[in-house]
Amino acid sequence: MRVDTAAGACLIFTGTLLIYVSTLHASAAGGDASEFAFVACDHSIAHPPGYPTFTMLASVGTDFVRGGYFGTRGPAWGANFVSAVAGAGCAAILYIAIVTASGDAATDRLTAHASAALGSGILALQRNVWLNTIQSEVFGLNNLFVALAVLCAVRLDKSTSIVDAAWGALVCGLAMTNQHTFVLFGAPLAAWALFCPCRRVGLLTPPHIFCLLLLPLVGIVPYAYLILTSGRLRDGNYFGQEGVNPPGAWGATHTVKGFITHVTRQEYGSFRLYSGAERGEHRAFLGLQNYLWNLSAETYGIALPLMTAASWAAAKGGGRKITGKYFPGLAPVLVAYTICTVVFQLIANLPIENKLYLGVSARFWMQSDVAAGFIIGCGTAFLAEIASPKFVLIWPKWSQLSHVSVGIFGFRSLTFDTGFTNMCVVVAILTARLATNHSAMDESDNRIFEAFGREILRPLPSNARLMVRGDLISNSARYVQRCLGYRRDVQMIDMSMLTYKWFVPVQGPNFPGFVFPGTHYHPYEKGGFSMRNFLDANIASNRAGMPSNRDGNQGSKDIFLAGGWHDDDASTKGFYMEQPFGIADRIVSVDSAMNMKMTIPQWIYKEMRTALPNMTDALPAKETVELKYPEGRWERVAIKDYYAAHHRLAFELLTWGLSDAMEINDERSTLSTGKAMDDSAWPFERCVEIIGWCVSEHPKPVPSFYWRNLGICHQQLLVAGKNLMNTNHNSKMLAAWTRYVELGQTDEVVRMEEGYGVIAHIVATTGHTASNLNDGH
To answer: Buried (b) or exposed (e) across 26-55, using 16+ Cβ within 10 A?
Structure first.
């Protein structure tokens, strides 16, 4: 490697790393990033296929933070830093690959460096890449492996040697321990390497073939981590018991069957991103459309023209027929890029019509983006080479200014080096990209998920039993438990894990407060149990559903649920129901819930109110959320869940007031009529307070049912006050319902809701009240 190339790569690495670190997530990020953070803290096992290479590297980061080497930052910051280093390394390696490929084709070295800076810089500053590299995710490391594979292909095509082929084989093996989708890019490159350059120079001899087949196996050695880490008791006890794996760890990889099942992702489907949807042909076209639009938008529209130019160079024999020189590695990378991009969209099964799932799917585009960065760099060098080697600027000769009256000017040309001009243009493009994206990508004060996890656990009684569902809730709560040591007394079971047969024997001992009435949670499989069976076995009949005492002594008898029931199991219907308890719900039997309706609502409200989450210090301003965290970001999901927890309490009060207030007050014969009237209005007043706060603080768009229920509360206060012309409540009712109807005009789902037509009629005939509208969903 030439000195100028090494110096340029060091500059790219340092600059990229400084940018990433300045915007690094302050704590755990959303989705899988929180899982990787707590798995790194515990040195345990992540979801299939286990991601052992990243887990081991992230563990180094979390251990360094715990050792105080990074000040007071939390463990997740260390795992985030590891990802940022990998991302910066990807940019540097890609820079070297482009310079190596374009150095011979370019007339001057500065043009090659400018092309490499554009290709690597435009990749590093792309929002999708940037966002997923500043958090503890596997994608930054996968991008590094893709860049290394590109560099190996370039070197093989330029001067084929067994050393370069061996490095390529080893990289392919290592990459498969980090992310299986690498095979979509690596397999075409490996096939090309074997049958083109290696065959051309006679490297396909038995010893060489043996070496090239052995090295990928050496590369997958990190999978031994899954075997060595699983199936052994740890030093620390959890809830007074010892499980085979720490809470939150996946699988039984210490067994042959468990290891194969985990590594091959059989529980998800080996060629599926998740287990909740089938592939659709229309999604493939939609995915390609979204990918190409994002690539173009993130590069100011220059990506596709430059990639077209690179394709032209490859089609002309790598540029030989035009310039007499060529771009080694360009043609095979173009083919691998096309195969990877198209095949991924064909096999992806995420419902990308949903913006959240589109964001999840977009993370896998980065593999193609790395190759696209290389192609863009080669295309830039190719166009610079075939264009005029000098820019000619027209400038008048000062000696001829006297001839202006004649209208004739003489001109001379001022010339500038093409390489210098190219570098100036590239620096301008990258500076503009940095300035545009930096504030949007700055997560240096983002502690939303840490606060969210704390608020899930904070209000729960001592030794509470909690069932969780969904990545956001499960991973956020698990991070603050495992990494920060917060509320470790709460026994938390993941409902998704409970559906696998390995959970009860491997994880069950970690949760002595739970009884498992079968081998796994599945109401339709032999040996499985339904959620009703599970709750029947875990809730004592004599105390089922009773609220905990104010001192919390009875809390361990309660079971809480965060994330909702499983969609395919309706066994709890008619037997158990949920009561709001902050972000979570308390599970109560239907009979107990009926008895609790006779309880004074003010007492129930007081207990539920203290359980409401408070994330004020962690949430940015509403306007910032609307701009920085659009639909599809995990932050937006967490913020919506935060306000939904408040609304659920309001809805509980609204439901109680509509169905039982008058009945309960009638039975209190000792109360005066005025007191009974005050009691009947009390839940609606609290409802107005809570929902009014929600609609004022919630980022746009505010859910339509917030406005509907707010209007119903005002309408019921009109009825309770026996003054249907009360201008205050009447005007506020109509204002809320007007917003609801406006949302329905652009949303068919809202228009199909029960009661929408009645509300729309009331709004249309402003001035009427609605004393009979009692639907408050």
So the answer is: bbbbbbbbbbbbbbbbbbbbbbbbbbbbbb
DSSP 562: E
Q: Which helix (H) or strand (E) holds 97?
A: helix 75-102
Lowest mean pLDDT: which of 367-371, 390-394, 622-626? Answer: 390-394
Question: pLDDT digits over 444-486, tens only?
Answer: 999 999 999 999 999 999 999 999 999 999 999 999 999 999 9
Query: pLDDT, tens digit, for every residue of 569-609?
Result: 899 998 998 889 999 999 988 876 665 655 556 667 777 88
Question: What string of DSSP letters covers 176-200?
Answer: TTT-GGGHHHHHHHHHHHHHTHHHH
One-letter identity of residue 62: T
The rounded distance, in Å, linking the Cα atoms of 363 and 361 is: 5
For residue 123, give the nearest of 149, 88, 91, 101 by alpha carbon.
91
Residue 370 near residue 336, CB atoms below 8 Å:
no
The torsion defined by the Cα of 14, 433, 181 and 53, in degrees rounded to 10, comes to 20
Q: Where are the alpha helices (DSSP H) in 551-672?
A: 590-596, 601-611, 622-628, 634-667
SS3 161: coil
d(CA 434, CA 445): 19
SS3 assignment, position 22: helix
CB 137 within 8 A of CB 195: no
Name, in order, each residue with C-beta under 8 angstroms of 307's C-beta and a sequence gap of 6 or more: 372, 375, 376, 379
CA distances from 776 to 647, 648, 730 (A): 12, 11, 17
Query: What pLDDT, in 10s, does the model give residues 69-109?
Result: 566 678 999 999 999 999 999 999 999 999 999 876 555 77
Give the H/E segment covering residue 739: helix 727-745
Nearest residue to 307 (alpha-carbon basis) of 372, 385, 381: 372
Structure tokens at 138: 């596997």
**Is 474 within 8 Å of 56 (Cβ atoms)?**
no
CA contacts within 13 A on the Cβ side of 420? 5
Alpha-carbon span 314 to 370, nearest angstrom: 18
* Phi and psi torsions of 73, nearest 5°: -65, 150
What is the reported pLDDT for 196? 79
The amino acid at residue 37 is: A
